[in-house]
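Dear colleague,

As promised, here are the two records you asked about, laid out in our usual form so they can be pasted straight into your sheet.

NAME FIELD: protein one
SEQUENCE, THEN STRUCTURE:
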Amino acid sequence: QVQLVESGGGMVQPGGARRLSCAASGFTFSNFMMSWVRQAPGKGPEWVSGISLSGTNIYYADSVKGRFTIFRDNAKNTLYLQMNSLKPEEPALYYCVSDFAGRGPRGQGTQVTVSS
């Protein structure tokens, strides 16, 4: 059974940074492309970033390109999202997904709040 547990959310000031983690279990993590998706209150899900099996190929939504970095540690079965220069309009529930498109099994998410 796929289990994904996100952590690292919290409150950050505009322009600040935050690193999210996603601990995976119940499946062979290294055999799956992974992604991060976020959902702001009252809005639909937004795909943020995706990463290939080995981490060699990485893709970002235009809205986060240059500020966010996705990476993975297959030895630790963990996916990460380093978020820098967070904007006031980016508070959302961030969750990881066990596929590239962001439509597969997902975790419960971790809330990121951007406020001064």
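NAME FIELD: protein two
SEQUENCE, THEN STRUCTURE:
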Amino acid sequence: QVQLVESGGGSVQAGGSLKLSCAASGYIFRCTMGWYRQAPGKERELVSRISSIGTATYADSVKGRFTISRDNDKNTLYLQMNSLKTEDTAVYYCAALCGNIYWGQGTQVTVSS
């Protein structure tokens, strides 16, 4: 069983930065981890994913602006978000793909113009 708790969301002006964290209980070092987001009225979408060995992929909309990383010793996943845009406003969810998929409760990111 894996439990995930996100933190680091908040409100920021366009062009600003935020860093999200996802603390996991349970062993995640063999799991692919990911960040997803859901904006009001839209479906949940993949933002970025990182494999157990650190291979990262990104949605085209965030390439060059967001960086995903993981610290397996601390059981923590991160998402550094730079050059934020108003369209990045959403609830951001951490996910662990460990056979089953586990979700965090989400953290709100609001980017204002």
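A couple of things worth noting about protein two: The longest strand covers residues 90-98. The chain has a mean pLDDT of 96.

Best,
R.
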